[in-house]
Design goal:
Thrombin, subunit H; 2 domains; Methane Monooxygenase Hydroxylase, Chain G, domain 1; 5-stranded antiparallel beta sheet
Length: 164
């Protein structure tokens, strides 16, 4: 399973490090809790060991997957009609972000970057929020995978999400 020092990703929170495994007595039942610190947003989470499998907690991607991530960030060719381009896809994007998969977050960035380029007045508020969440999610993981600064990780996203 996981051990202290492992870099992990928790869906919708991003990447962090397991700092400790604590045993707690809750209502007479002893449970082990993973204590995970998320450096980008300075949050500490305690996750019960018996909920790890269903929580979506996973190890961060391997450095060799960075090229795949860069490709996934590229804007997609859009085939949406003008009517569809105006419709916010916040529910679909939120579902992708909640999956905890870095490639799903890259898809959100790719789709919204393409959509942003098509619209003269920018993205809807929910789309902007989802774009920011997706970027933050990926940045948190890139910081731990490649030992990048926050600025370098954001620059990686910017460089790879530009149109061809």
């Amino acid at each position: 399973m996981f051990k202290v020092g492992d870099h992990v990703v928790y869906p919708y929170h991003g990447a962090g490090t397991i700092q400790d495994i604590e045993e707690k007595d809750i209502l007479g039942e002893k449970l082990n809790y993973f204590v995970v610190f998320f450096p980008l947003n300075h949050v500490t989470l305690m996750l019960p060991e018996n909920r790890v499998k269903t929580s979506g907690l996973r190890k961060i991607i391997q450095p060799k997957q960075i090229d795949e991530l860069a490709t996934a960030l590229k804007p997609t060719e859009s085939s949406t009609s003008k009517k569809d381009a105006a419709r916010p896809y916040s529910k679909e994007n939120e579902t992708l972000l909640k999956s905890g998969d870095i490639m799903d977050a890259a898809m959100v960035i790719s789709n919204l970057t393409s959509k942003e380029g098509e619209r003269t007045n920018g993205l809807h508020m929910e789309d902007r929020k989802n774009l920011d969440r997706a970027k933050q999610f990926i940045v948190s993981e890139l910081m731990l995978v490649n030992d990048l600064s926050e600025e370098e990780a954001y620059q990686f996203i910017t460089d790879n999400s530009k149109g061809a």
